[in-house]
Amino acid sequence: MGQKEISIAPIVHRGEPRLKLEFPYNQSFSGLLKEKLAARWSQTLKAWHVADSAENKAKLKQLMSEEGYVERLRGMDEKIPKNYGDYQQDSAPVYSEAQADRDLSAADVVIEVLGNKILLKMPKQEADVQFVRKIRYARWNKQHYVWEIPNYPGNLDLLKAHFAERLERITEHRMHEVLIATGERLERQLNEVLVGRGYEGRMRVMFGYHTGMMNAVKALPLAKWNSKNKWWSLPDTDELVAEVEKAAAANGLAFRLHTNKAERKVKPPVMPGRPDLVRSCPEEMVLKLKELRYSENTIRTYCEAFHKFINYYPHDEINEISERQIIAYLRHLVMEREVSISVQNQAINAIKFYYEKVLGGSRKTYYIERPRKEKTLPVVLSQDEVAAIINSCDNLKHKALIMIAYSGGLRVSEVIALKQEDIDIQRMRIRIEQSKGKKDRYTLLSKRCVDVLQSYYATYKPQQFVFNGQGTAQYTARSAQAVLKTAAQKAGIVKKISFHTLRHSFATHLLEAGTDLRYIQNLLGHERSRTTEIYTHITQKGFEKIVSPLDDLAV
After folding, report:
1. What is the dihedral of CA 308, 481, 290, 367, to 10 degrees?
2. 268 and 207 Cβ atoms separated by less than 8 Å
3. DSSP 3-state of 527
4. Measuring CA to CA, which residue among 165, 316, 148, 130 is closest to residue 235?
5. CA 502 → CA 29, 70, 505, distances in Å?
């Protein structure tokens, strides 16, 4: 691609028609795209993308002309395919030359059935690709080079009929019981492969660095490396356990199986048996949520909760579902699925939003017995433990990230969204813009943090955000949490911590230093004082003056 060329291609991204834009890095041009076309950066695509509309195409052509870009269009004016909405993928699979060398012969088609998924491996023949793409919700898994197809009634028979004698193997896995994961720690011995089963549908495979074992596990269906916990995970099936045990024996390693003893099982949501009855969240609900400027996380949560609700009653018109049916569904969540209180509240909020905000109905209260909420206290670090975590960071960027989070009691979403103009060194303040509840606030900037930040700026030269990911992209919450947990492990902290632990510690340490609770409430951005009052139950201030009555006994 030349210096001033731009490649444009129509794609389906997260179920929406978009235009994917690829061009050499240019901060000025990227800013214009964001300002004039509401362009968004996709970490998945590694490219900018805009809504695919006639208006945007015209604006884009004009902007390219003004900025001296040469059009390199690929089907920009083509119509969207008829089956555009029937599958969710960014593009058809792109085969590399290296992968082509690994392709199966024309007679080798492999099918693996894992619970509600069908995995299909097949040679790259255009007719077969077009056939699979017509199956509703089929998607290409570019990480594992397989097609993922929902295991709806009839889909497996459809694949068998199409591939017929070309099928080399069909394996229908027996899924292990799915249990709630517990906080137990699994200790692996030297030269041992430890497999943990019963953890939310995926087994954990742990072993020391071993090339042969690693290659064997990577070759299994849907194998994923969990860099945070340092284990491999696989679908929890009897067949795959047998494969791991066989691989351990072949590599001269001991094999041990551990089963999670948690009592409560995860029950999946009730969905229609036929794929044509599965309904998506109504578009008018999505638009209303965006119109009222709800956050992306809230929009995703509400839509997912409402999607499960309307598919519980697949034969009823959405607008005609009765109040009695709503209460029956909420009772089903509590009594049969045994969901958590937060999931139950999300379902209630999503249902109320649709019938009250979207349809304009009157406010209603759905009476249903709720389980008593557990009253738990947050985990808090001592000041020495916080210092140990910070001092364990050899990487300057990671050190600055943790220090600024503790300095102002920031949520992880607030840390990664910080921009350089939000750091006011003269007034020693951090400005938090449009955080939870769409509120702005100011919080504290530590003097110790300033020196580290200035060194970090000079070394890394971040652009736009204080902490950038790859290129100019925003640092991800997952990466930030991984940085903190790695630092805690190096510091020898055994507590289960996150960025919210730093936030709790910040508030508790301020309270112990004599800071008024109202100031702490403002610094944290709490709506209600009751939320902040939880730290009065954690603080150690005054405890040293209380003497146990046992000390007064002559024993």
Report:
1. 40
2. no
3. coil
4. 148
5. 38, 50, 5
Q: pLDDT tens-digit profile of 242-288?
A: 899 999 999 999 999 988 765 455 567 877 766 667 888 999 999 99
Average pLDDT, the chain: 80
Instruction: Give the span between the Cα atoms of 21 and 23, in whole angstroms.
Output: 7
pTM of the entire predicted model: 0.48
Residue 234 contacts by C-beta under 8 Å, 6 or more apart in sequence? 202, 203, 205, 217, 220, 221, 222, 223, 224, 240, 244
Structure tokens at 430: 């951090």
pLDDT in tens, 396-417: 999 999 999 999 999 998 999 8
The residues that are catalytic are: 411, 436, 500, 503, 526, 535
Q: Which residues contact 20 (CB under 8 A, 6 or more apart)?
A: 8, 9, 10, 11, 13, 45, 47, 48, 49, 90
* Strand-by-strand arrangement of the 117-121 sheet: 139-141, 146-150, 117-121, 109-114, 167-172
Most confident of 43-57, 220-234, 385-399: 385-399
Q: At 2, is the pLDDT very low, low, confident or very high (cuts 50, 70, 90)?
A: very low
Nearest-10 Cα torsion for 451, 453, 459, 460: 180
pLDDT of residue 73: 43
User: Which of 36, 40, 62 minimizes the C-alpha distance to 49?
Assistant: 40
The burial class, CB within 10 Å (0-12 / 13-18 / 19+), for 324 is exposed
Separation in Å, CA 37 to CA 34, 40, 45, 296: 6, 9, 18, 19
At 288, the amino acid letter reads K
Do 435 and 382 touch, CB atoms closer than 8 A?
Answer: no
Give the whole-angstrom CA distance, residue 433 versus residue 422.
8
Alpha-carbon torsion angle 548, 549, 550, 551, nearest 10: 70
